[in-house]
Amino acid sequence: METLEFIIYPDGRVQETVTGIVGNSCAEVTAAIEAQLGLVLSHEPTSEFFATQVQQSSVVNTQATYSDW
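The structure assignment produced for this chain is given below.
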């Protein structure tokens, strides 16, 4: 599940936490929001940022042989 959590402090700072998004795509998801919020002071990537998305694919080869018996 992809979630974005925002904590807004009394002094106006906003802490954003992104979970459930693997790799650098979290930057694409949050770019528009961060542009509206203003100056970004820091980024702290989580372990999900460094993870790679696993894609499984399977190829099944079938061969039918017929006998002349």
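Interim note for the steering committee: The longest strand covers residues 3-8. Residues 25-37 form the longest helix (13 residues).
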